[in-house]
Amino acid sequence: MEGRSAVSPQPDGQVASPRRAPSQQRSRERVERMLAAASVLIAEQGSDAMRMGEVAERAGVSIGSLYQFFPDKRAIVWALAERHTTESQACIAAALKDVGDAEGLRQAFSELVDIYYRLFLAEPVMRDIWSGTQADKALRELELADSRANAGFLIAVLRRLRPDADPVALETTAFLVWQMGEAAMRLAISVDREEGDRLVAAYKRMALRELLAE
Amino acid sequence: MEGRSAVSPQPDGQVASPRRAPSQQRSRERVERMLAAASVLIAEQGSDAMRMGEVAERAGVSIGSLYQFFPDKRAIVWALAERHTTESQACIAAALKDVGDAEGLRQAFSELVDIYYRLFLAEPVMRDIWSGTQADKALRELELADSRANAGFLIAVLRRLRPDADPVALETTAFLVWQMGEAAMRLAISVDREEGDRLVAAYKRMALRELLAE
DNA sequence: TGCAAATGTGAGGATTACTCATGTTTGTAA
DNA sequence: TTACAAACATGAGTAATCCTCACATTTGCA
């Protein structure tokens, strides 16, 4: 009924480095246990609801030890995220390494998407961390409903334009096109204006190609 | 140096309704002031860093009055978000209302994207609320860097396949295609499995069409 | 005018991130 | 082996914040 917890009231945005790097075998193992505990708790409850005391308890260490290696709560989440990106980048690089022609790209990319999809499905931690408006399920649902409503307007147009097309396919396309637009926007406003404009223009081209395709 | 604040440790995900709807003129005006104050503070510091005491102070009401109309912190953010989606949906519906043919769609959609883009640029509150991994700037930057790295692998392949193409355009395309993929994944895992699979398949088709275009 | 319902208040309860003084273990050099 | 500094471990305590609640005031209306 209350709610404190969280992440950081300072507007810093920096990730403090581990207060101390574990140099002995013993502490390295303990840090692993802390990360594993955090991973489980994030999967169960989300990173926001994860409590530091619980992480410590589950890892079998004291709260003080936790803070010996992680300067704050965000640092734990960050460490898990960084580990994940490192792994996934290696996987992607490998998949695209030997692509030589268009057909090769088609195959490699298709496999890559499948792998990535399975990875997303299997990693609750990443689901939590990367999910937009992550901390708040209600907001996420509002966002999804909003997207569906907006895609709905597009779908109505498409149905008028192509009454014989498969309605489900139309819906999927419109929904995806719209979602991608929101992704492009979010991205565009977080890079510099010039790149943002380019991205939006590229999105327009891409979206229209798909919307008007056959 | 500390950090409490936040949003909600309960795994509920429900948005409690206003504890009480403002029925008198006086209270309706005060609720408006509360929302306006919250809007400013979110724009300045982000929704996570926004403190309820500060909202109350800025609105010129007591903390108790705030909780009279908003059951918790998230409810304020939610109210602002809902207001925004209502407005933007009306705007989108209007833009697409009279589309009659493909050329009309092309024009209306193009204008719509521009409007939406400007809206995103102008609304810091929505930027904060909709931005993925919103609460944590460091995570958002890690995510962006990860995306750039992954797009980099794609770019390398595209350069090999089409050495004469404009490098900047290639980069933009690859970056966008990759970002859209991540958006599709995030979306796919938050809907049911069947729809998720459809979305991923549609994304593959779309991405390949764009990557292999020309 | 009287009264119930709506509204307003802010000190204080409860929870939680994080600190720090203190104790323990480890590696290492004499 | 022993001494000792550095690394590691601990958990009660501090500070910050969300939210409650008992009580005061204002409003609409019969």
UniProtKB/TrEMBL annotation, chains A, B:
Residues 16-25 have a biased composition (Low complexity). It comes from Mesorhizobium amorphae CCNWGS0123. Transmembrane segments: none annotated. PANTHER family: HTH-TYPE TRANSCRIPTIONAL REGULATOR PKSA, HTH-TYPE TRANSCRIPTIONAL REGULATOR RUTR. Residues 1-28 are annotated as: Disordered. Residues 51-70 bind DNA. This is TetR family transcriptional regulator. GO terms for molecular function: DNA-binding transcription factor activity; transcription cis-regulatory region binding. Keywords: DNA-binding. Residues 28-88 form the HTH tetR-type domain. The keyword Protein transport does not apply. The keyword DNA-binding applies.
